[in-house]
């Protein structure tokens, strides 16, 4: 049986979720952690990498692939190792839930009269 941990919102989260994450999702969570630790925004990260804010937003929502050259630039610019950006632990469960919640939001269908 998988262990379950309560996240800050009080919801129980299945820890096996950690193992099921794609590389895109792991990177998005790692970038969210980096932003929180350093008090940065997507705009700040984008400026540091020389990419658009829209691109950075898509990456932090796990909606965009990243080139290896961009990963290398992240590593050099932010003085981190890629493994740290891809590492996800139980401490990131709230970020996983936030990512899922954000990705689950869809535009309401338009109605015509």
UniProtKB/TrEMBL annotation:
CDD domains: HTH_XRE. It comes from the Bacteria. Residues 31-85 form the HTH cro/C1-type domain. Transmembrane segments: none annotated. This is Xre type transcriptional regulator. Keywords: Plasmid. GO terms for molecular function: DNA binding.
């Amino acid at each position: 049986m998988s262990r379950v941990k309560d996240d800050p919102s009080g919801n129980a989260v299945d820890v096996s979720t950690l193992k099921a994450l794609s590389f895109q999702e792991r990177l998005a969570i790692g970038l969210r952690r980096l932003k929180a630790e350093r008090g940065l925004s997507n705009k700040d990260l984008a400026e540091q990498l020389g990419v658009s804010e829209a691109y950075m937003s898509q990456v932090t929502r796990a909606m965009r692939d990243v080139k290896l050259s961009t990963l290398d630039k992240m590593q050099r610019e932010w003085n981190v190792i890629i493994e740290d950006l891809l590492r996800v632990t139980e401490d990131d469960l709230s970020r996983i839930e936030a990512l899922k919640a954000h990705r689950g939001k869809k535009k309401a269908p338009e109605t015509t009269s």
